[in-house]
Design brief:
This protein is an all-alpha fold. It has helices at 2-16, 23-29, 32-66, 68-88, 101-115, 117-142, 146-188, 197-233, 244-257, 263-289. Helix 6 packs antiparallel against helix 7 (146-188). The radius of gyration is 23 Å and the shape is elongated. The protein starts with a helix and ends with a helix.
Length: 290
């Protein structure tokens, strides 16, 4: 909680200090929409700190079991993507009258995105860990240690959802903040043609694609590993006529691991992946109406 409040406070200072350095910047900072943007951005930074710290223990466990080389590689991917997005990605809003606007926004994004690095890296590490579990299945079965595999698969599923919620929530809050910034730019008098909503939608689409690219392969690999373990524990009988207990045992394993793609689980996963895109739509609508 203290870290979240500290990050929110630092964000307020970064966005507020020196905002009256020029006449245009002073007039821009006096707008109510500017205050809304600042507070949403501060909330994003605070949420990033709180959620990132909460997800770090799961990432640390996963990093130790997967290996440091793979972990360092997974951690390094996120800042590289951030730099590529900043250099070549769509401009969500563009230039605003705030003095040193690009420097301020970049600083806040670095703060928030640093805290969600464990969530991104954790999702990137899941397929690597599942590959290792596939190699450990036969020795574990021979040594009567299959319960450890079941327990770790259950833990991995929980960790994946935690990582997804952390990553998607912070990205979604950032997109809502960008919508507030666009509203402030329009209220200042910036022509709507200079801050078209398509920019915001494109930016949200790119972040949605990034979310999907890290979560969907991890979840598909997890489902495949659960299926492989189930077939190893309860193989199809040679005569092709499994008894009722065989069906029940496989169903019990699926229930234990929550492997069945029920409607609620599908909707929860889809909402997490599509949250950034939905937030960009909401932001574009609210900033246009504002």
């Amino acid at each position: 909680m203290l870290a979240a409040l500290a990050c929110a406070g630092v964000t307020l200072l970064v966005l507020r200090l020196g905002s009256g350095h020029t006449a245009a910047s002073r007039r821009f900072a006096a707008l109510p929409q500017f205050g809304v943007w600042v507070w949403i951005y501060a909330g994003e930074a605070g949420a990033a700190a709180a959620l990132g710290i909460a997800s770090f223990p799961a990432f640390w466990i996963l990093a130790r079991t997967t290996g440091w080389r793979a972990s360092v590689r997974a951690v390094a991917i996120w800042p590289v993507l951030g730099v590529l997005l900043a250099l070549f990605g769509p401009r969500a809003v563009g230039t605003v009258p705030l003095w040193l606007d690009s420097v301020r926004v970049t600083a806040v994004n670095v703060i928030a995105w640093t805290f969600i690095t464990p969530a991104f890296a954790g999702l990137a590490l899941v397929p690597t860990r599942l590959t290792a579990l596939a190699r450990e299945t036969a020795p574990a079965m021979n040594g009567g240690d299959a319960g450890r595999l079941v327990a770790e698969l259950s833990w991995l599923r929980t960790a994946m959802l935690r990582f997804l919620i952390t990553f998607a929530a912070v990205i979604t809050a950032g997109l809502l903040a960008l919508g507030a910034l666009r509203s402030a730019a329009l209220a200042f008098g910036t022509p709507a043609a200079h801050v078209p909503p398509l920019r915001l939608l494109s930016y949200g689409g790119v972040l949605t694609a990034i979310t999907a690219l890290i979560f969907l392969p991890a979840y598909a690999a997890w489902q495949e590993r659960v299926s492989g373990l189930r077939d190893t524990l309860y193989p199809v009988p040679g005569d092709g006529r499994p008894p009722h207990d065989w069906y029940q045992a496989r169903d019990d394993l699926d229930t234990l691991l929550a492997a069945r793609p029920g409607a609620s689980r599908v909707l929860a996963g889809a909402f997490g992946v599509l949250a950034p895109l939905m937030a960009s739509f909401v932001s574009a609508l609210l900033s246009a109406s504002g």
